[in-house]
UniProtKB/TrEMBL annotation:
Top-level taxon in the UniProt lineage: Archaea
Keywords: Membrane, Transmembrane, Transmembrane helix
Pfam families reported for this sequence: DUF3267
Plastid as UniProt keyword: no
Protein name: DUF3267 domain-containing protein
Keyword Chaperone: no
Comp. bias (Basic and acidic residues): 1-14
Species assigned in the record: Natrinema soli
Region (Disordered): 1-23
Residues annotated as transmembrane: 35-57, 143-162, 168-193
């Protein structure tokens, strides 16, 4: 008789949060609804692309899009051909610069509040990040931390739509679309924070595990 043994790889345990501070309830795991956020990001992208595209059209006129499309007239028809080289390079630049600046702005506000910031890239998740691991963050601080990139980049990039250099204006348009769409997770956190009591604390154990500590003396 041949005895066969199979080694079962143990499941990865969820990292434990610290003990609750005095006056706080037991921690609750905070999770992002990944599928919901992905679905929400689609109409957000379309709305943002149309909105900023309309603004760019109003400021620059239709000729600005000549940097994106090659126009060919054949008989009674006009054919628009997307130039992938002229579009692809500004898009890649806009993507990486926007993501990097987005996270640097998160980190800058964290540092303003005296938190130690860790920057990094998680290839498995396909994400850049700025995080204050192993530190309590107050609910009131997380509002500016979460909204700083969305607001700052919008303020900085929107005026560039009026620059009379099509490549700059179009790149600014891409930055605005990428940044706004990519802020869907930040907007979700802010929406959740609005429903939490004042004084709530959040604690990042690692990139995937965030815990919420709510105060015990909450008035109903």
């Amino acid at each position: 008789m041949v005895e066969m043994k199979f080694a079962v790889r143990p499941e990865r345990e969820t990292p434990s949060p610290p003990a609750p501070p005095a006056g706080y309830d037991e921690p609750k795991l905070f999770e992002y609804p990944t599928l919901v956020l992905l679905l929400v990001s689609v109409p957000l992208f379309l709305l943002t692309a149309y909105g900023f595209g309309w603004l760019l059209w109003q400021i620059q006129g239709p000729e600005v899009f000549a940097t994106l499309f090659a126009v060919t007239e054949t008989g009674d028809s006009t054919v628009l051909v997307l130039d992938m080289i002229d579009v692809g390079l500004p898009f890649v630049v806009a993507l990486f610069v926007t993501v990097a600046v987005h996270e640097l702005l998160h980190g800058a506000v964290m540092r303003y509040y005296g938190q130690d910031v860790t920057y990094g890239v998680n290839l498995a998740m396909g994400a850049f990040y700025a995080a204050a691991f192993g530190q309590f963050q107050r609910r009131e601080q997380l509002f500016p931390i979460g909204l700083a990139p969305l607001v700052s980049i919008a303020i900085g990039a929107t005026p560039l739509l009026a620059v009379p250099v099509p490549s700059i204006a179009v790149t600014a348009y891409m930055v605005l679309v990428i940044n706004t769409t990519g802020a869907v997770g930040d907007l979700y956190v802010v929406w959740c924070l609005r429903r939490m009591p004042e004084g709530t604390l959040m604690y990042d154990v690692d990139l995937r595990h965030m815990y919420v500590f709510e105060p015990l003396d909450v008035e109903v």
